[in-house]
Specification:
The protein is an alpha/beta fold and 627 residues long. It contains 20 helices and 32 strands. The protein has 2 domains: 495 residues, Rossmann fold, CATH 3.40.50.12780; 102 residues, ANL, C-terminal domain (GMP Synthetase, Chain A, domain 3). The two termini are 26 Å apart.
């Protein structure tokens, strides 16, 4: 970390935003707006909230007891009223809400009017299964319009959706179904990627086998329909129902969704976001930070299985009346120029992507974007992991040129929306994600809570909540409370960072044992648990190492049982086992069979030592190493 810090501090190059971008930005006075958002925090958020429709007004903007926070208290609404009904009522019935693309070239456009009718039909279908306000519905769907509709239909009736990424294996899906207490599971028969189909229905069948909590499984079929089981319901039968369904009015603090994300223990944590504050916060940052409005065509390369897909495929673009393009499949299939073909074909003005994709494009070469007219692009927003300076420079020079700007930013599943970032009017300092966004008060502290001076590495912390932050962890409020109680008066993000004299932050990495693989957070404990579930493994250790494309790659060290059958290719066998248990995103890049693991005298595995040895770095203090 010290070498990385020294490199960052030596960085002198500063990039200014293109005049064509900065001159049109909605926010020109960052300093004044930011100051007001901190000094008059309630009034700041109240003004933004007033732009949405509420059935009952709030009696109080916010309350915070040092751990738990509430926003727009006493108010009632439903996020779908603001995402759908108000646009249709305002004459945008025929305005495109979504343009969906399949890897095989299939295209489907859905207007706001069509989307509202479809959401209502599916909502009525869920009501016919006795899904009521507060019930949980797990969604295990491919990246399709039907997947987004499933989310909105749950929200419409006040049910709580929990989307599980359609790349997780049956074990991970079952864990989330059980923890959420899902009454219904909505699944697809298959998903498509790189020309191959993924048997989502088979994975779902395995996950729900033997469970008493799931009463129905709704099946969305893309291939030839198969006979349905006793608990199964055909998605298409819902499409025959009424296109009218009044939105269930819910309290501002009513849960909207539970999204599971990896933590430092084996159990994933269910992050809870709510209708009111989440709506206000994610909608604000689409318009202000991302500088995206109703006239934009917004291409988002994320997935509904992740928080970016929740906030910036499903909810915020609809709140803003924007047209969103999203695509199922790999970003380099059928060829390496496919995403630039999409930008040219649809006149995309704003793109949300990850540094992993930027590094992939950089490796492929600029001849691919050069083959297309992508001059419509104005904003290129990056998030998910640190954007390394080389990737930024390449993207700005070869993709954005003088007509668009690469805008890095940082947030987490727990935070719901952008928190630190480089705005359209701000200069970019390579290696630095940017400043605290309006409404966010961030700082760097040591483990005792002392604020650290500029250019000193420490824990990235937030001094106050904002409306779109999580409210709790599902079924585990104590785990949530510890995040605020670790350092009194601060939300500890779990990341290590620095802040320079100008207020620009650089996020250096995780302080805990959570890996960031291509923007996906994977707990080392999750992978280690999967490994030791194999009969041949006695114990294991998992680390992440820098990877040019993925950001981090998973490396496994496994100690085998004395009676283990080692006649096969054990590294491949164990790698395949992890893949089967957790899904493709958790597949190790390397598996090493070792005779023992380095441990402290108290028995804790020294993963730091393993990583240092593998990378040829100084292992640091090894005085506690058991010899």
């Amino acid at each position: 970390m010290s070498d990385k810090l020294a490199t960052l501090l030596a960085e002198q190059e500063i990039f200014q935003p293109p005049q064509a971008v900065s001159s049109q930005a909605k926010i020109q006075d960052y300093t004044g707006i930011y100051k007001n958002s901190i000094e008059n925090n309630d009034a700041f958020w109240e003004e933004i909230a007033s732009g949405y429709e509420w059935a009952t007004p709030w009696s109080k903007v916010s309350s915070f007891d040092g751990v738990n926070h509430r926003w727009f208290e006493g108010a009632t609404t439903n996020i779908t009223i603001n995402a759908l009904d108000r646009h249709v009522a305002a004459g945008k019935k025929n305005h495109a809400a979504f343009i969906w693309l399949g890897e095989d070239g299939t295209e489907k456009t859905v207007t706001y009017g069509m989307l509202l009718a479809m959401v209502n039909r599916i909502a009525n279908g869920l009501k016919s299964l006795n899904v009521q306000k507060g019930d949980r519905v797990v969604i295990y769907m491919p990246l399709t319009i039907e997947g987004v509709v499933s989310m909105l239909a749950c929200a419409r009736i006040g049910a709580v959706h929990s989307v599980v990424y359609a790349g997780f294996a049956a074990g991970a899906l079952r864990t989330r179904i059980d923890d959420a207490g899902a009454k219904v599971v909505i699944t697809g028969d298959v998903g498509y990627r790189r020309g191959k189909s993924v048997d989502l229905k088979g994975i779902t069948d395995e996950a729900v086998a033997g469970t008493d909590v799931v009463e129905h499984v709704v099946v969305f079929s893309r291939e030839e329909k198969k006979p349905l089981g006793d608990k199964e319901v055909d998605w298409d039968s819902f499409l025959k129902l009424s296109p009218h369904c009044e939105a269930e009015l819910v309290d501002s603090e009513h849960p909207l969704y539970v999204l599971y994300t990896s933590g430092t223990t084996g159990k994933p944590k269910g992050v809870v976001h709510v209708h009111g504050g989440y709506m206000v916060g994610v909608g604000y940052h689409l318009e202000s930070y991302m500088d995206i409005g109703p006239d934009d065509v917004f291409l988002n390369m994320s997935d509904i299985g992740w928080v970016v897909g929740h906030s910036y495929i499903c909810y915020a673009p609809l709140l803003g009346g924007t047209t969103t393009v999203f695509r199922e499949g790999a970003p380099d299939t059928p060829d390496a120029g496919i995403m630039w073909d999409v930008v040219e074909r649809y006149g995309v003005t704003a793109l949300f992507t990850a540094p992993t994709a930027v590094r992939m494009w950089m490796r492929m070469g600029n001849e691919y974007p050069d083959a297309y007219d992508i001059s419509s692009l104005r904003i290129m927003v990056c998030a998910g992991e640190p954007l390394n300076p080389e990737a930024f420079r390449w993207a700005q020079e070869y993709l954005c040129k003088d007509h668009a700007y690469v805008m890095d930013h940082w947030w987490q599943t727990e935070l719901g929306g952008p928190t630190l970032g480089t705005m359209a009017i701000h200069e970019h300092k390579p290696g630095f994600v940017g400043r605290a966004l309006p409404g966010v008060e961030a700082c760097i502290v040591d483990e005792d809570g002392n604020e650290l001076p500029a250019n000193t590495g420490g824990l990235l912390a937030l001094k106050r909540p904002f409306p779109h932050m999580m409210r709790t962890i599902w079924n585990d409020p104590k785990r949530y409370e510890k995040i605020w109680q670790q350092v009194e008066g601060h939300y500890i993000t779990g990341d290590v960072a620095i802040c320079d004299e100008e207020g620009r932050f650089s996020v250096l990495g995780r302080a805990d044992d959570v890996l960031n693989v291509a923007g996906h957070r994977i707990g080392t404990a999750d992978v280690e648990s999967a490994l030791v579930s194999h009969a041949a493994v006695a114990e294991s250790a998992v680390i992440g190492i820098p990877d040019e494309l993925k950001g981090e790659a998973i490396v496994v060290f496994a100690v085998l049982r004395g009676d283990a059958d080692t006649t096969g290719d054990m590294p491949k066998i164990l790698s395949d086992h992890v893949r089967n248990e957790l899904g493709p995103i958790a597949t190790p890049s390397k598996v090493e069979i070792v005779s023992s693991l380095p441990k402290t005298r108290s028995g804790k595995i020294m993963r730091r030592l393993l990583k240092a040895q593998l990378l040829g770095e100084d292992p640091g203090d090894t005085s506690t190493l058991e010899t």
